[in-house]
Prior knowledge:
Blueprint: H1 2-18, H2 20-42, H3 46-51, E1 58-66, H4 77-85, H5 99-111, E2 116-119, H6 134-140, E3 145-149, E4 170-172, H7 196-201, E5 224-228, H8 229-233, E6 246-251, E7 259-261, E8 264-266, H9 268-281, E9 286-287, H10 290-310, H11 313-338, E10 340-341, H12 345-415, H13 420-449, E11 459-461, H14 463-480, E12 484-489, E13 495-497, H15 499-516, E14 522-529, E15 533-540, H16 547-550, H17 573-583, E16 587-593, E17 597-605
Parallel strand pairs: 1-5, 1-6, 2-3, 2-6, 3-4, 9-10, 12-14
Antiparallel strand pairs: 7-8, 11-13, 14-15, 15-17, 16-17
Amino acid sequence: MKTSYSKKLEVWRRWFAINRGFWFRALLCWIISLFFLKVDEGGSYDNRFRLRGQQKISNAIVLVTVKTSDFSKIYDLKTNSLINTNELSDLSDSFYWERSLWQKLLSEILKQNPRSVGVTLYFGDNVGQIRFSTEEIITFKDKRVFWATNSSQLEKLSLPIATRPDRSNLGHIDILKDDDGVSRRLFINPDYLPNLAFRLTQEIRTEKYKNKIPIINFTKSKQFKTISYLDIINGKIPSNFLKGKIVLIGTEKSAYSQIQTPMGLMSRHEYWGQVVENLLQNNFIKKLPFWLYATFLLILALFAMAIISSYPQAAALFFFLWLVTLTAAFSAWVFDSFAIWIPIISPISLFIFIWLLFTAYQALRIEKAHMRLKQEQSYFSELEQLKNNFVSLISHDLKTPIAKIQAVLDRLLSSGTVPPEISEDLNSLKDYSEELNRYIQSILKVLRVESRDFKIMKETADINGVIENVVERLKPLAASKSIQIQVNLEPMFLIEFDVTLMTEVFLNIIENSIKYTPENGLIRIRSHETETDVFIEITDTGEGISPEDQENVWKKFVRGKAQDHKTKGTGLGLFLVKYFIELHGGKISLKSELKKGTTIFVSLPLSFDNE
């Protein structure tokens, strides 16, 4: 058991050692992507907010906007002229105070029984000393109405005019700003006065966010239903329009009341509407633990490595682009749906670095493999040359003693002094030496045609003439077995081919037909031409070739199994035949049945360029 376990460990160790370059690059890409996590968050999600789609309109919050022009009628002509010329001037909250109008506004809102009402304007010492009537006290100090104050710290607190004795109807509107002046985070101090958003939501306690500075999840404008001050005063809204809703009252955007956010400038009551919505939905931006992001990036890295190591570069690039798109879409969906930040810059940087490093890594591996291949080719070329030189040397060295043996045998046989029984043995020796000489010649032919500088020598000639010459040469061999050769050659135009090679082709084919055809057999040779090719058919009445041998007869040193012990041969003849015909751009095939004979089909193109 221990031996098996140690073997597995050794296999894994070797595998990692062989692929250490691969894994080192993967680790480097992953580490770089972890550094980009900080860059990804550096934008404080501003781009995420701007790129997100339109969110659905909140059914829990209604904004009531008090416009500067709404108060024009209660001022004299001089003030009215000022307002008309510059409605967006730096007007303080006290400009919008008129007790009778606010009494009527709040009364109309409270009649519809809202969940809570928040006044984001500060009305305190800036509007002077005011004594409320009983009716006004009931309205302004209603437990559902909350007034804005300027600070959460009690020692700096400026009390609004409608402050209750326990100060339970106050909420501060302090804004926490970053260095660039943009408000992105919510200021919470549970030990002091709650902000206006917590007052309006009431059941949500500040202790839940102790020691936290939540990031506000901003959405695009028009998320809230907005009505004007005059619509309520003039009774232009449905009777139950505000029932159960949180109502925020504020002014239109002005130099004094606007707040800079990632989504641009917002009016004060729109800003606090965003905060209230975050509290109600608990959708402040959430950031997961670092190790989860690191694991997410590691999974992406492994997936990307599997792709780039398994597919061609074009396909891998397509998958990478698809992965980037899918990751970006997933990140945007999670961010918009669940307010969870999923990095996008770090995965994109991860994919880019993996692509660059692993493309370079693969290019290096391909280059090394190419170098090894060139070395192997050089080695095999040298080995092939050594083999050819050896065989050629041996073959040439054998030709001389064979020629001498044949000369001695011819002299003895022609002397007339050799006894008949010895003469028969000498004739057998002569046949054996000729057979050995044919073997050597076949080997030399194969070596010559397989050499790299082998070229065919084309000349214009008559293919029928070549066939007739071959038949004349082989007639004595056919006659020795009483085999009849019928030749039916159609007249044809001259074509370009290598006469020596084609003579060798038909000599091998017809000689094989004679060799494997029994006595008193028949061989037919036909030729004809078309507009593009010349066709030659050579049919014999021999024993035929078995189906399992028909594909192999064209291979080097291969002979039919049934012929191994019946006839002698090198197994090189048909290999050379096929090679020579294909050098001319032609084709050769056969059709054979056992005990019925074989037909060889040869086709040569009329026009062939072998430069």
